[in-house]
Amino acid sequence: MNEKESSRKNARARRDLAVMAGLAALLFVLESSFGLIGRSVAFITSRTLTWPLVAFVYVTVCLAFALSIFSLRRWKDLKSEIQERERIEEMLFKIRENLETTIMEQTDDLRKNNRQLMQELAERRRVETALTRSEARFRSFMENGPALAFVKDEAGRYLYVNRAWEKLLGRSRREVEGKTDFEVWPQETAESLQANDRRAWESGQPLEMLETLTLPNGVTVYGLTVKFPLSDPAGGRWLGGMVIDITQMKQEEAARRETEVRYQSIFDNAGDPLIISDLEGKSLEVNRVACDLSGYTREELLQIPITRLIPPKFANRIPRMMKTIKKEGRAVFELEAVTRDGRSLPLEVSSRLIDFGGRMTILNILRDISERKETEAKLEAGFRKVASMLDDTIHAIGRIVELKDPYTAGHEERVAQLASALARELDLSEEAAGTIYMAGILHDIGKITVPAEILSKPTKLNAYEFSIIQTHAAAGYQILKDIDFPGPIALAILQHHERLDGSGYPNRLPAEKIIREARILTVADVVESMSSHRPYRPAIGLEKALEEITLNRGRLYDPEVVDACLRLFREKSFHFV
Protein backbone atom coordinates (compact mmCIF):
# COMPACT_ATOMS: atom_id res chain seq x y z
CA MET A 1 0.00 0.00 0.00
CA ASN A 2 2.86 2.49 0.70
CA GLU A 3 4.32 1.86 -2.77
CA LYS A 4 0.97 2.53 -4.49
CA GLU A 5 0.38 5.76 -2.51
CA SER A 6 3.86 7.01 -3.37
CA SER A 7 3.24 6.38 -7.10
CA ARG A 8 0.01 8.39 -6.99
CA LYS A 9 1.72 11.33 -5.28
CA ASN A 10 4.53 11.38 -7.87
CA ALA A 11 2.07 11.35 -10.80
CA ARG A 12 0.02 14.16 -9.28
CA ALA A 13 3.16 16.30 -8.73
CA ARG A 14 4.29 15.82 -12.36
CA ARG A 15 0.83 16.85 -13.61
CA ASP A 16 0.74 19.98 -11.45
CA LEU A 17 4.24 20.95 -12.61
CA ALA A 18 3.23 20.61 -16.26
CA VAL A 19 0.14 22.80 -15.81
CA MET A 20 2.16 25.48 -14.06
CA ALA A 21 4.76 25.42 -16.83
CA GLY A 22 2.05 25.78 -19.50
CA LEU A 23 0.44 28.75 -17.77
CA ALA A 24 3.81 30.44 -17.39
CA ALA A 25 4.53 29.98 -21.08
CA LEU A 26 1.11 31.33 -22.06
CA LEU A 27 1.51 34.41 -19.89
CA PHE A 28 4.91 34.99 -21.34
CA VAL A 29 3.64 34.76 -24.92
CA LEU A 30 0.67 37.03 -24.25
CA GLU A 31 2.74 39.51 -22.41
CA SER A 32 5.35 39.48 -25.17
CA SER A 33 2.80 39.81 -27.99
CA PHE A 34 0.63 42.49 -26.50
CA GLY A 35 3.68 44.31 -25.21
CA LEU A 36 5.13 44.34 -28.73
CA ILE A 37 1.88 45.64 -30.23
CA GLY A 38 1.64 48.32 -27.58
CA ARG A 39 5.16 49.42 -28.11
CA SER A 40 4.61 49.43 -31.87
CA VAL A 41 1.53 51.64 -31.63
CA ALA A 42 3.30 53.92 -29.22
CA PHE A 43 6.18 54.09 -31.57
CA ILE A 44 3.94 54.94 -34.51
CA THR A 45 2.04 57.59 -32.66
CA SER A 46 5.16 59.11 -31.29
CA ARG A 47 6.89 59.50 -34.58
CA THR A 48 6.15 60.37 -38.05
CA LEU A 49 6.90 57.23 -39.98
CA THR A 50 7.44 56.57 -43.56
CA TRP A 51 5.33 54.08 -45.38
CA PRO A 52 7.84 51.35 -45.41
CA LEU A 53 8.32 51.72 -41.75
CA VAL A 54 4.60 51.71 -41.23
CA ALA A 55 4.35 48.61 -43.31
CA PHE A 56 7.08 46.98 -41.23
CA VAL A 57 5.29 47.85 -38.05
CA TYR A 58 2.06 46.56 -39.43
CA VAL A 59 3.60 43.33 -40.45
CA THR A 60 5.28 43.04 -37.09
CA VAL A 61 2.03 43.59 -35.30
CA CYS A 62 0.25 41.06 -37.47
CA LEU A 63 2.98 38.56 -36.86
CA ALA A 64 2.82 39.17 -33.12
CA PHE A 65 -0.94 38.76 -33.18
CA ALA A 66 -0.68 35.62 -35.23
CA LEU A 67 1.96 34.35 -32.87
CA SER A 68 -0.36 35.04 -29.93
CA ILE A 69 -3.21 33.18 -31.57
CA PHE A 70 -0.87 30.31 -32.39
CA SER A 71 0.34 30.32 -28.81
CA LEU A 72 -3.27 30.15 -27.57
CA ARG A 73 -4.00 27.26 -29.87
CA ARG A 74 -0.80 25.61 -28.85
CA TRP A 75 -1.82 26.04 -25.23
CA LYS A 76 -5.11 24.36 -25.93
CA ASP A 77 -3.32 21.53 -27.68
CA LEU A 78 -0.82 21.30 -24.83
CA LYS A 79 -3.65 21.23 -22.33
CA SER A 80 -5.34 18.46 -24.29
CA GLU A 81 -2.08 16.56 -24.43
CA ILE A 82 -1.61 17.05 -20.70
CA GLN A 83 -5.13 15.84 -20.03
CA GLU A 84 -4.62 12.88 -22.37
CA ARG A 85 -1.36 12.14 -20.70
CA GLU A 86 -3.02 12.36 -17.31
CA ARG A 87 -5.73 10.02 -18.51
CA ILE A 88 -3.15 7.62 -19.89
CA GLU A 89 -1.10 7.84 -16.69
CA GLU A 90 -4.23 7.24 -14.63
CA MET A 91 -5.10 4.29 -16.82
CA LEU A 92 -1.54 3.02 -16.62
CA PHE A 93 -1.64 3.47 -12.86
CA LYS A 94 -4.83 1.45 -12.64
CA ILE A 95 -3.41 -1.17 -14.98
CA ARG A 96 -0.27 -1.32 -12.89
CA GLU A 97 -2.33 -1.49 -9.72
CA ASN A 98 -4.49 -4.27 -11.17
CA LEU A 99 -1.40 -5.98 -12.49
CA GLU A 100 0.27 -5.86 -9.08
CA THR A 101 -2.88 -7.23 -7.45
CA THR A 102 -3.12 -9.96 -10.08
CA ILE A 103 0.55 -10.79 -9.70
CA MET A 104 0.19 -10.93 -5.91
CA GLU A 105 -2.89 -13.16 -6.18
CA GLN A 106 -1.18 -15.40 -8.70
CA THR A 107 1.90 -15.46 -6.48
CA ASP A 108 -0.26 -16.59 -3.53
CA ASP A 109 -1.91 -19.21 -5.72
CA LEU A 110 1.49 -20.31 -6.90
CA ARG A 111 2.71 -20.59 -3.31
CA LYS A 112 -0.40 -22.61 -2.38
CA ASN A 113 0.03 -24.83 -5.43
CA ASN A 114 3.70 -25.22 -4.60
CA ARG A 115 2.91 -26.22 -0.98
CA GLN A 116 0.25 -28.65 -2.19
CA LEU A 117 2.68 -30.05 -4.72
CA MET A 118 5.34 -30.49 -2.01
CA GLN A 119 2.78 -32.26 0.21
CA GLU A 120 1.74 -34.48 -2.67
CA LEU A 121 5.39 -35.25 -3.41
CA ALA A 122 6.01 -36.07 0.28
CA GLU A 123 2.90 -38.27 0.37
CA ARG A 124 3.98 -39.96 -2.84
CA ARG A 125 7.44 -40.61 -1.40
CA ARG A 126 5.81 -41.99 1.79
CA VAL A 127 3.51 -44.23 -0.25
CA GLU A 128 6.42 -45.35 -2.42
CA THR A 129 8.49 -46.10 0.70
CA ALA A 130 5.61 -47.98 2.30
CA LEU A 131 5.00 -49.84 -0.95
CA THR A 132 8.68 -50.73 -1.18
CA ARG A 133 8.69 -51.99 2.40
CA SER A 134 5.45 -53.87 1.88
CA GLU A 135 6.84 -55.45 -1.25
CA ALA A 136 10.02 -56.37 0.63
CA ARG A 137 8.00 -57.90 3.46
CA PHE A 138 5.82 -59.80 1.01
CA ARG A 139 8.85 -61.04 -0.89
CA SER A 140 10.54 -62.03 2.39
CA PHE A 141 7.34 -63.82 3.43
CA MET A 142 7.12 -65.63 0.10
CA GLU A 143 10.80 -66.51 0.04
CA ASN A 144 11.21 -67.62 3.65
CA GLY A 145 7.80 -69.15 4.35
CA PRO A 146 7.51 -72.93 4.73
CA ALA A 147 4.77 -73.17 2.08
CA LEU A 148 5.55 -73.78 -1.60
CA ALA A 149 4.47 -70.73 -3.64
CA PHE A 150 4.21 -70.57 -7.43
CA VAL A 151 2.79 -68.56 -10.34
CA LYS A 152 2.03 -70.15 -13.75
CA ASP A 153 1.06 -68.60 -17.04
CA GLU A 154 -1.85 -69.78 -19.15
CA ALA A 155 0.40 -72.30 -20.88
CA GLY A 156 1.18 -73.94 -17.56
CA ARG A 157 4.77 -72.72 -17.34
CA TYR A 158 6.17 -71.81 -13.93
CA LEU A 159 6.91 -68.08 -13.94
CA TYR A 160 7.89 -67.96 -10.27
CA VAL A 161 8.62 -70.47 -7.52
CA ASN A 162 9.93 -69.60 -4.05
CA ARG A 163 12.92 -70.93 -2.15
CA ALA A 164 10.93 -73.78 -0.54
CA TRP A 165 10.86 -75.53 -3.91
CA GLU A 166 14.63 -75.89 -3.86
CA LYS A 167 14.44 -77.79 -0.56
CA LEU A 168 11.61 -80.00 -1.82
CA LEU A 169 13.03 -80.83 -5.25
CA GLY A 170 16.73 -80.64 -4.41
CA ARG A 171 17.40 -78.39 -7.40
CA SER A 172 17.69 -74.68 -8.14
CA ARG A 173 14.42 -72.85 -8.70
CA ARG A 174 15.98 -71.38 -11.85
CA GLU A 175 15.80 -74.92 -13.21
CA VAL A 176 12.04 -74.93 -12.53
CA GLU A 177 11.01 -71.46 -13.72
CA GLY A 178 10.03 -71.45 -17.38
CA LYS A 179 9.18 -75.16 -17.39
CA THR A 180 5.86 -77.01 -17.31
CA ASP A 181 4.75 -79.70 -14.86
CA PHE A 182 5.74 -82.42 -17.33
CA GLU A 183 9.33 -81.13 -17.28
CA VAL A 184 9.47 -81.03 -13.48
CA TRP A 185 7.35 -83.94 -12.19
CA PRO A 186 6.85 -87.58 -13.17
CA GLN A 187 4.12 -88.16 -15.77
CA GLU A 188 1.36 -89.25 -13.40
CA THR A 189 1.96 -86.37 -10.97
CA ALA A 190 2.14 -83.83 -13.82
CA GLU A 191 -1.19 -85.02 -15.26
CA SER A 192 -2.83 -84.74 -11.85
CA LEU A 193 -1.45 -81.22 -11.32
CA GLN A 194 -2.60 -80.09 -14.76
CA ALA A 195 -6.10 -81.44 -14.12
CA ASN A 196 -6.27 -79.52 -10.84
CA ASP A 197 -5.02 -76.38 -12.63
CA ARG A 198 -7.87 -76.64 -15.12
CA ARG A 199 -10.37 -76.96 -12.27
CA ALA A 200 -9.00 -73.78 -10.69
CA TRP A 201 -9.11 -71.90 -14.02
CA GLU A 202 -12.69 -72.99 -14.60
CA SER A 203 -13.88 -72.13 -11.09
CA GLY A 204 -12.61 -68.57 -11.34
CA GLN A 205 -12.05 -68.47 -7.58
CA PRO A 206 -9.66 -69.95 -4.98
CA LEU A 207 -9.88 -73.73 -4.91
CA GLU A 208 -8.55 -75.92 -2.06
CA MET A 209 -7.44 -79.48 -2.78
CA LEU A 210 -5.25 -82.31 -1.50
CA GLU A 211 -2.48 -83.24 -3.94
CA THR A 212 -0.15 -86.21 -3.93
CA LEU A 213 3.28 -85.30 -5.28
CA THR A 214 5.74 -87.98 -6.30
CA LEU A 215 9.23 -86.50 -6.36
CA PRO A 216 11.72 -87.48 -9.07
CA ASN A 217 13.51 -89.65 -6.46
CA GLY A 218 10.29 -91.61 -5.85
CA VAL A 219 9.43 -90.11 -2.45
CA THR A 220 5.74 -89.28 -2.01
CA VAL A 221 4.77 -85.92 -0.52
CA TYR A 222 1.26 -84.86 0.45
CA GLY A 223 0.36 -81.23 -0.08
CA LEU A 224 -2.64 -79.16 0.99
CA THR A 225 -2.91 -76.81 -1.99
CA VAL A 226 -4.84 -73.62 -2.70
CA LYS A 227 -4.91 -72.52 -6.37
CA PHE A 228 -6.38 -69.19 -7.47
CA PRO A 229 -6.66 -67.34 -10.83
CA LEU A 230 -4.94 -63.95 -11.14
CA SER A 231 -5.46 -61.15 -13.69
CA ASP A 232 -4.56 -57.52 -14.38
CA PRO A 233 -6.45 -54.63 -16.08
CA ALA A 234 -4.50 -55.24 -19.29
CA GLY A 235 -6.04 -58.70 -19.64
CA GLY A 236 -3.10 -60.79 -18.44
CA ARG A 237 -4.02 -64.05 -16.69
CA TRP A 238 -2.00 -66.26 -14.37
CA LEU A 239 -2.54 -69.05 -11.88
CA GLY A 240 -1.16 -68.64 -8.37
CA GLY A 241 -0.85 -71.33 -5.74
CA MET A 242 0.33 -72.15 -2.22
CA VAL A 243 1.20 -75.70 -1.14
CA ILE A 244 1.61 -76.73 2.52
CA ASP A 245 3.54 -79.95 3.07
CA ILE A 246 1.32 -82.14 5.28
CA THR A 247 3.30 -85.34 4.80
CA GLN A 248 4.22 -85.57 8.49
CA MET A 249 0.61 -84.88 9.45
CA LYS A 250 -0.59 -87.66 7.15
CA GLN A 251 1.99 -90.04 8.57
CA GLU A 252 0.98 -89.13 12.13
CA GLU A 253 -2.66 -89.59 11.19
CA ALA A 254 -1.94 -93.02 9.75
CA ALA A 255 0.05 -93.93 12.86
CA ARG A 256 -2.76 -92.66 15.04
CA ARG A 257 -5.30 -94.75 13.16
CA GLU A 258 -3.06 -97.76 13.53
CA THR A 259 -2.68 -97.01 17.24
CA GLU A 260 -6.42 -96.62 17.61
CA VAL A 261 -6.94 -100.00 15.96
CA ARG A 262 -4.43 -101.60 18.30
CA TYR A 263 -5.89 -99.70 21.24
CA GLN A 264 -9.39 -100.85 20.35
CA SER A 265 -8.15 -104.42 20.16
CA ILE A 266 -6.41 -104.13 23.53
CA PHE A 267 -9.41 -102.31 24.98
CA ASP A 268 -11.84 -105.00 23.88
CA ASN A 269 -9.64 -107.88 25.03
CA ALA A 270 -8.37 -106.41 28.32
CA GLY A 271 -8.75 -108.60 31.38
CA ASP A 272 -10.12 -105.75 33.52
CA PRO A 273 -13.41 -103.93 33.02
CA LEU A 274 -12.75 -100.64 31.16
CA ILE A 275 -15.10 -97.68 30.86
CA ILE A 276 -14.31 -94.46 28.99
CA SER A 277 -16.46 -91.56 30.18
CA ASP A 278 -16.65 -87.85 29.49
CA LEU A 279 -15.85 -85.25 32.14
CA GLU A 280 -19.49 -85.26 33.26
CA GLY A 281 -19.56 -89.01 33.91
CA LYS A 282 -21.40 -90.21 30.78
CA SER A 283 -20.06 -93.48 29.36
CA LEU A 284 -18.61 -93.20 25.86
CA GLU A 285 -17.15 -96.68 25.45
CA VAL A 286 -17.08 -99.91 27.47
CA ASN A 287 -15.37 -103.23 26.87
CA ARG A 288 -16.74 -106.74 27.01
CA VAL A 289 -15.44 -107.49 30.53
CA ALA A 290 -17.30 -104.45 31.92
CA CYS A 291 -20.50 -105.78 30.39
CA ASP A 292 -19.91 -109.25 31.82
CA LEU A 293 -19.16 -107.87 35.29
CA SER A 294 -22.14 -105.51 35.45
CA GLY A 295 -24.65 -107.77 33.71
CA TYR A 296 -25.62 -104.95 31.31
CA THR A 297 -25.21 -104.92 27.53
CA ARG A 298 -22.86 -102.43 25.87
CA GLU A 299 -25.79 -100.38 24.59
CA GLU A 300 -27.34 -100.26 28.06
CA LEU A 301 -24.10 -99.17 29.74
CA LEU A 302 -23.65 -96.39 27.19
CA GLN A 303 -27.11 -95.08 28.06
CA ILE A 304 -26.85 -95.38 31.86
CA PRO A 305 -24.96 -92.59 33.71
CA ILE A 306 -22.17 -93.96 35.88
CA THR A 307 -23.75 -92.34 38.94
CA ARG A 308 -26.75 -94.67 38.61
CA LEU A 309 -24.46 -97.64 39.15
CA ILE A 310 -23.14 -96.22 42.45
CA PRO A 311 -25.00 -96.84 45.77
CA PRO A 312 -26.20 -93.70 47.61
CA LYS A 313 -23.61 -94.08 50.38
CA PHE A 314 -20.84 -93.56 47.78
CA ALA A 315 -22.63 -90.91 45.69
CA ASN A 316 -21.08 -87.99 47.58
CA ARG A 317 -17.60 -89.22 46.63
CA ILE A 318 -18.16 -88.81 42.90
CA PRO A 319 -17.84 -84.98 42.68
CA ARG A 320 -14.69 -85.07 44.83
CA MET A 321 -13.18 -87.82 42.69
CA MET A 322 -14.00 -85.96 39.45
CA LYS A 323 -12.37 -82.80 40.84
CA THR A 324 -9.20 -84.73 41.70
CA ILE A 325 -9.05 -86.31 38.24
CA LYS A 326 -9.47 -82.95 36.47
CA LYS A 327 -6.86 -81.28 38.69
CA GLU A 328 -4.17 -83.98 38.86
CA GLY A 329 -4.94 -85.97 35.71
CA ARG A 330 -5.38 -89.24 37.59
CA ALA A 331 -6.86 -90.78 40.73
CA VAL A 332 -7.26 -94.16 42.43
CA PHE A 333 -10.19 -94.77 44.74
CA GLU A 334 -12.48 -97.46 46.04
CA LEU A 335 -16.25 -97.62 45.83
CA GLU A 336 -19.07 -100.06 45.29
CA ALA A 337 -21.20 -100.61 42.19
CA VAL A 338 -24.60 -102.22 41.87
CA THR A 339 -24.88 -104.95 39.24
CA ARG A 340 -27.96 -105.64 37.14
CA ASP A 341 -29.09 -108.33 39.57
CA GLY A 342 -28.73 -105.97 42.57
CA ARG A 343 -25.46 -107.26 44.00
CA SER A 344 -23.13 -104.75 45.62
CA LEU A 345 -19.70 -105.15 44.10
CA PRO A 346 -16.59 -103.60 45.77
CA LEU A 347 -14.33 -102.05 43.12
CA GLU A 348 -10.97 -100.31 42.92
CA VAL A 349 -11.17 -97.65 40.20
CA SER A 350 -8.02 -96.29 38.60
CA SER A 351 -8.89 -93.22 36.52
CA ARG A 352 -6.80 -90.99 34.29
CA LEU A 353 -7.38 -88.32 31.66
CA ILE A 354 -6.84 -89.44 28.06
CA ASP A 355 -7.41 -88.06 24.56
CA PHE A 356 -10.19 -90.10 23.00
CA GLY A 357 -11.21 -89.14 19.49
CA GLY A 358 -9.82 -85.62 19.87
CA ARG A 359 -11.54 -84.84 23.17
CA MET A 360 -10.46 -85.10 26.80
CA THR A 361 -12.05 -88.09 28.49
CA ILE A 362 -11.52 -90.33 31.51
CA LEU A 363 -10.31 -93.91 31.23
CA ASN A 364 -11.63 -95.88 34.21
CA ILE A 365 -10.00 -99.24 34.94
CA LEU A 366 -12.20 -101.27 37.31
CA ARG A 367 -10.97 -104.15 39.42
CA ASP A 368 -13.22 -106.46 41.36
CA ILE A 369 -11.71 -106.42 44.84
CA SER A 370 -14.25 -108.71 46.50
CA GLU A 371 -11.59 -111.31 47.32
CA ARG A 372 -9.16 -108.62 48.44
CA LYS A 373 -11.80 -107.11 50.72
CA GLU A 374 -12.45 -110.52 52.24
CA THR A 375 -8.71 -111.02 52.74
CA GLU A 376 -8.38 -107.53 54.23
CA ALA A 377 -11.24 -108.25 56.59
CA LYS A 378 -9.52 -111.45 57.72
CA LEU A 379 -6.19 -109.65 58.10
CA GLU A 380 -7.83 -106.84 60.04
CA ALA A 381 -9.43 -109.35 62.36
CA GLY A 382 -6.03 -110.99 62.78
CA PHE A 383 -4.38 -107.62 63.43
CA ARG A 384 -6.99 -106.81 66.03
CA LYS A 385 -6.38 -110.16 67.68
CA VAL A 386 -2.60 -109.65 67.62
CA ALA A 387 -3.02 -106.10 68.94
CA SER A 388 -5.23 -107.41 71.70
CA MET A 389 -2.67 -110.08 72.52
CA LEU A 390 0.09 -107.46 72.49
CA ASP A 391 -1.95 -105.21 74.72
CA ASP A 392 -2.61 -108.10 77.08
CA THR A 393 1.08 -108.98 77.05
CA ILE A 394 2.10 -105.41 77.82
CA HIS A 395 -0.37 -105.23 80.66
CA ALA A 396 0.91 -108.56 81.93
CA ILE A 397 4.44 -107.17 81.93
CA GLY A 398 3.16 -104.11 83.77
CA ARG A 399 1.61 -106.33 86.37
CA ILE A 400 4.95 -108.06 86.84
CA VAL A 401 6.40 -104.70 87.88
CA GLU A 402 3.44 -104.14 90.19
CA LEU A 403 4.07 -107.52 91.81
CA LYS A 404 7.68 -106.46 92.32
CA ASP A 405 6.54 -103.13 93.83
CA PRO A 406 2.96 -103.57 95.12
CA TYR A 407 2.92 -100.11 96.70
CA THR A 408 2.88 -98.48 93.23
CA ALA A 409 0.13 -100.69 91.82
CA GLY A 410 -1.80 -98.89 89.09
CA HIS A 411 0.95 -96.32 88.50
CA GLU A 412 1.84 -97.63 85.03
CA GLU A 413 -1.79 -97.69 83.88
CA ARG A 414 -2.48 -94.17 85.11
CA VAL A 415 0.72 -92.81 83.49
CA ALA A 416 -0.31 -94.52 80.24
CA GLN A 417 -3.80 -92.95 80.42
CA LEU A 418 -2.45 -89.43 80.99
CA ALA A 419 0.37 -89.77 78.43
CA SER A 420 -2.00 -90.93 75.64
CA ALA A 421 -4.47 -88.15 76.54
CA LEU A 422 -1.61 -85.62 76.28
CA ALA A 423 -0.70 -87.00 72.84
CA ARG A 424 -4.26 -86.48 71.60
CA GLU A 425 -4.38 -82.98 73.12
CA LEU A 426 -1.22 -82.19 71.14
CA ASP A 427 -3.00 -83.34 67.93
CA LEU A 428 -0.82 -86.41 67.44
CA SER A 429 -2.22 -89.32 65.47
CA GLU A 430 -4.06 -92.22 67.06
CA GLU A 431 -1.13 -94.44 66.15
CA ALA A 432 1.26 -92.12 68.05
CA ALA A 433 -1.14 -91.96 71.00
CA GLY A 434 -1.25 -95.78 71.06
CA THR A 435 2.54 -95.96 71.01
CA ILE A 436 2.80 -93.54 73.93
CA TYR A 437 0.16 -95.53 75.83
CA MET A 438 2.30 -98.68 75.52
CA ALA A 439 5.37 -96.70 76.62
CA GLY A 440 3.41 -95.58 79.68
CA ILE A 441 2.53 -99.16 80.58
CA LEU A 442 6.16 -100.28 80.21
CA HIS A 443 8.06 -97.19 81.38
CA ASP A 444 9.07 -98.72 84.75
CA ILE A 445 9.74 -102.26 83.50
CA GLY A 446 13.43 -101.80 84.36
CA LYS A 447 12.49 -101.79 88.05
CA ILE A 448 12.37 -105.58 87.97
CA THR A 449 16.17 -105.37 88.21
CA VAL A 450 15.97 -103.26 91.39
CA PRO A 451 15.86 -105.10 94.75
CA ALA A 452 12.35 -105.22 96.23
CA GLU A 453 13.56 -103.90 99.60
CA ILE A 454 14.71 -100.68 97.91
CA LEU A 455 11.46 -100.31 95.96
CA SER A 456 9.32 -100.74 99.07
CA LYS A 457 11.58 -99.01 101.61
CA PRO A 458 9.28 -96.90 103.85
CA THR A 459 11.91 -94.27 104.58
CA LYS A 460 13.82 -91.89 102.39
CA LEU A 461 16.41 -93.54 100.15
CA ASN A 462 20.08 -92.84 100.69
CA ALA A 463 22.38 -91.82 97.83
CA TYR A 464 23.43 -95.37 97.02
CA GLU A 465 19.87 -96.68 97.01
CA PHE A 466 18.76 -93.79 94.80
CA SER A 467 21.57 -94.55 92.35
CA ILE A 468 20.25 -98.13 92.16
CA ILE A 469 16.74 -96.80 91.46
CA GLN A 470 18.16 -94.61 88.65
CA THR A 471 19.36 -97.68 86.77
CA HIS A 472 15.79 -98.76 85.97
CA ALA A 473 15.51 -96.49 82.90
CA ALA A 474 18.58 -97.98 81.20
CA ALA A 475 17.54 -101.49 82.29
CA GLY A 476 14.11 -101.04 80.73
CA TYR A 477 15.75 -99.90 77.49
CA GLN A 478 17.98 -102.98 77.42
CA ILE A 479 14.96 -105.24 77.95
CA LEU A 480 12.88 -103.69 75.14
CA LYS A 481 15.38 -102.34 72.58
CA ASP A 482 15.30 -105.41 70.33
CA ILE A 483 11.51 -105.63 70.13
CA ASP A 484 10.02 -104.17 66.91
CA PHE A 485 7.42 -101.90 68.47
CA PRO A 486 5.34 -99.54 66.27
CA GLY A 487 7.31 -96.54 67.55
CA PRO A 488 10.34 -95.54 69.69
CA ILE A 489 9.02 -97.12 72.90
CA ALA A 490 12.38 -98.36 74.19
CA LEU A 491 14.04 -94.96 73.60
CA ALA A 492 11.17 -93.10 75.30
CA ILE A 493 11.57 -95.36 78.35
CA LEU A 494 15.33 -94.71 78.40
CA GLN A 495 14.77 -90.91 78.37
CA HIS A 496 11.67 -90.50 80.55
CA HIS A 497 13.77 -89.21 83.48
CA GLU A 498 15.84 -86.79 81.38
CA ARG A 499 15.21 -83.04 81.86
CA LEU A 500 15.43 -80.12 79.41
CA ASP A 501 18.23 -78.42 81.37
CA GLY A 502 20.40 -81.56 81.23
CA SER A 503 19.97 -82.40 84.92
CA GLY A 504 18.14 -85.70 84.35
CA TYR A 505 19.36 -89.28 84.20
CA PRO A 506 20.74 -91.65 83.05
CA ASN A 507 22.61 -89.64 80.35
CA ARG A 508 22.00 -85.98 81.32
CA LEU A 509 20.79 -85.27 77.76
CA PRO A 510 20.31 -81.69 76.52
CA ALA A 511 16.82 -80.65 75.38
CA GLU A 512 17.40 -81.11 71.64
CA LYS A 513 18.24 -84.81 72.09
CA ILE A 514 15.14 -85.74 74.10
CA ILE A 515 12.46 -87.21 71.84
CA ARG A 516 8.84 -86.02 71.90
CA GLU A 517 7.47 -89.29 73.31
CA ALA A 518 9.88 -89.07 76.26
CA ARG A 519 8.87 -85.44 76.98
CA ILE A 520 5.20 -86.46 77.15
CA LEU A 521 5.98 -89.50 79.30
CA THR A 522 8.03 -87.33 81.69
CA VAL A 523 5.17 -84.92 82.48
CA ALA A 524 2.66 -87.77 82.86
CA ASP A 525 5.02 -89.66 85.22
CA VAL A 526 5.70 -86.58 87.39
CA VAL A 527 2.03 -85.61 87.73
CA GLU A 528 0.89 -89.16 88.55
CA SER A 529 3.77 -89.82 90.98
CA MET A 530 3.17 -86.63 92.98
CA SER A 531 -0.59 -87.29 93.04
CA SER A 532 -0.21 -90.84 94.43
CA HIS A 533 0.99 -92.45 97.70
CA ARG A 534 4.52 -93.77 97.99
CA PRO A 535 6.02 -96.03 100.64
CA TYR A 536 8.28 -93.22 101.84
CA ARG A 537 5.66 -90.39 101.74
CA PRO A 538 1.96 -89.70 101.46
CA ALA A 539 0.41 -88.32 98.27
CA ILE A 540 1.38 -84.67 97.66
CA GLY A 541 -1.74 -83.98 95.61
CA LEU A 542 -2.73 -83.05 92.08
CA GLU A 543 -2.56 -79.28 92.59
CA LYS A 544 0.98 -79.51 93.91
CA ALA A 545 1.88 -81.67 90.92
CA LEU A 546 0.43 -79.10 88.51
CA GLU A 547 2.22 -76.35 90.42
CA GLU A 548 5.50 -78.28 90.01
CA ILE A 549 5.24 -78.61 86.22
CA THR A 550 4.06 -74.97 85.91
CA LEU A 551 6.98 -73.70 87.99
CA ASN A 552 9.52 -75.64 85.90
CA ARG A 553 7.83 -75.15 82.53
CA GLY A 554 10.51 -74.67 79.90
CA ARG A 555 13.36 -75.47 82.32
CA LEU A 556 12.72 -79.11 83.21
CA TYR A 557 9.57 -79.89 81.27
CA ASP A 558 8.47 -79.27 77.68
CA PRO A 559 6.27 -76.10 77.67
CA GLU A 560 3.80 -77.42 75.08
CA VAL A 561 3.30 -80.64 77.03
CA VAL A 562 2.87 -78.69 80.28
CA ASP A 563 0.25 -76.42 78.67
CA ALA A 564 -1.61 -79.45 77.31
CA CYS A 565 -1.59 -81.09 80.76
CA LEU A 566 -2.98 -77.94 82.42
CA ARG A 567 -5.77 -77.77 79.81
CA LEU A 568 -6.69 -81.41 80.40
CA PHE A 569 -7.10 -81.01 84.15
CA ARG A 570 -8.39 -77.44 84.42
CA GLU A 571 -10.49 -77.06 81.27
CA LYS A 572 -11.41 -80.58 80.18
CA SER A 573 -11.83 -82.25 83.57
CA PHE A 574 -9.45 -85.12 82.92
CA HIS A 575 -9.39 -87.78 85.60
CA PHE A 576 -7.74 -91.16 85.99
CA VAL A 577 -9.92 -94.23 85.47
* Strand-pairing-aware structural class: alpha+beta
In what range is the share of β-strand residues?
5-15%
Helix/strand order: HHEEHHHEEEHEEHHHHEEEHHHHHHHHHH
- Residue runs with pLDDT of under 50 for 5 or more positions: none
Mean pLDDT: 81
CATH superfamily of the largest domain: Hypothetical protein af1432
CATH-defined topology of the largest domain: Hypothetical protein af1432
CATH architecture of the largest domain: Orthogonal Bundle
Oligomer: single chain
Q: What overall geometry do the principal axes of the alpha carbons give?
A: elongated
Instruction: Quote the distance from N terminus to C terminus.
Output: 128 Å
Instruction: Work out the number of β strands.
Output: 10
Largest sheet: 5 strands, antiparallel
Instruction: Give the neighbour order of strands across the main sheet.
Output: 2-1-5-4-3
Domain HD: 408-530
Domain PAS: 134-204, 259-329
Keywords: Hydrolase, Membrane, Transmembrane, Transmembrane helix
EC number: 3.1.4.52
Can you describe what's shown?
It holds the Pfam family PAS_9. Keywords: Hydrolase, Membrane, Transmembrane, Transmembrane helix. InterPro entries: HD/PDEase_dom (IPR003607), HD_domain (IPR006674), HD_GYP_dom (IPR037522), HDIG_dom (IPR006675), PAS (IPR000014), PAS-assoc_C (IPR000700), PAS-like_dom_sf (IPR035965), PAS_4 (IPR013656). This protein is of the alpha+beta class and about 575 residues long. It folds into 4 domains: about 1-140, no CATH class; about 145-245, PAS domain (Beta-Lactamase, 2-Layer Sandwich); about 265-370, Beta-Lactamase, CATH 3.30.450.20; about 390-570, Hypothetical protein af1432, CATH 1.10.3210. It is about 60% helix and about 15% strand. It contains 20 helices and 10 strands. It has helices at about 1-45, 50-145, 165-170, 180-185, 185-205, 245-270, 290-295, 300-305, 310-315, 315-330, 370-405, 410-425, 430-440, 450-455, 465-470, 470-480, 490-495, 515-530, 540-550, 560-570, and strands spanning about 150, 160, 205-215, 220-230, 235-245, 275, 285, 330-340, 345-355, 360-370. The strands form 2 sheets. Strands 2-1-5-4-3 form a 5-stranded antiparallel beta sheet, sandwiched between helices. A 5-stranded antiparallel beta sheet has the order 7-6-10-9-8. The mean pLDDT is about 80.
